[in-house]
Amino acid sequence: MKLYHYVHCPFCIRVRMGLGFLSLPFQSIVVAYNDEVTPVKLSGKKMLPIIVSDNGVAQNESLDILQKQDFNDKLKWKIFLENKIEVERLIDKIGSPVHSLCMPYWIWTPEFDENSRKYFQEKKEIKRGPFKKLVKNQIQYLTELQAIIAFEIETKLEPFYRSECLTIIDIMIASHLWGLYIVPEFQFSPKMHEYLQRVKRLCHFDYHEDFWK
After folding, report:
1. pTM assigned to the model
2. Are residues 191 and 117 in the same domain?
3. How confident is the prediction along the chain (213 residues), in pLDDT tens digits per residue?
4. DSSP letter string over 58-110?
5. Residue partners of 147: CB distance under 8 A and separation at least 6
6. H/E/C letters for each residue in 32-63?
């Protein structure tokens, strides 16, 4: 399989973690953020991640990709379906402050060059406003996010989210929070850091892998 993805993207990280947990090998292809041709050619729209199977069939939507590859239900999809509304609301609540905190830092990682950095910033500032303003408002996003993590995630770890074993829900949570490791003003609690590192180990995940090739 070939995985076309962005390094920073939580939905792309979700697939990388899931495939790692399922022990499914894939060829990693990092797409420049300003490359509109590649994803459109593969799937008809500029959206990653995209998996291309050995027979050339392309598929996007992270959860659909993982569910199709999880032949033995190792990710415990029933637990997700039982908590689907709660989990989707949680991911939405996490997403806004995480992106506001992380985007001004993501653009300076090795994933971006001058052209893709400019493209990314112009696109994202349409929705979120100037990155300079996001940085100035960090305290607001930090406070909001720390409350969500403390009261809506940490209190439900058993030691995984509502479960004694890792499920797709843990991958959804971890992939959305992972970008915060790049934000110097944010620090996970010891409990949350240990949880995320546990998910990382089980998923054989290396965020920086594609940076150092």
Report:
1. 0.96
2. yes
3. 999 999 999 999 999 999 999 999 999 999 999 999 999 999 999 999 999 998 889 999 999 999 999 999 999 999 999 999 999 999 999 999 999 999 999 999 999 999 999 999 999 999 999 999 999 999 999 999 999 999 999 999 999 999 999 999 999 999 999 999 999 999 999 999 999 999 999 999 999 888 876
4. EEE-HHHHHHHH-TT-TT-HHHHHHTHHHHHHHHHHHHHHHHHHHHHHHTTST
5. none
6. CCCCCHHHHHHHCCCCCCEEECCCCCEEECHH
Residue-range definition of the domain harbouring residue 42: 2-71
Q: Which tokens go with 85?
A: 């509304």
Q: Which phi-psi region, left, alpha or beta, contains residue 29 (left: φ > 0; alpha: ψ -120 to 50)?
A: beta
Provide the CATH number for the domain around residue 194. Answer: 1.20.1050
Q: Residue type at 87?
A: V
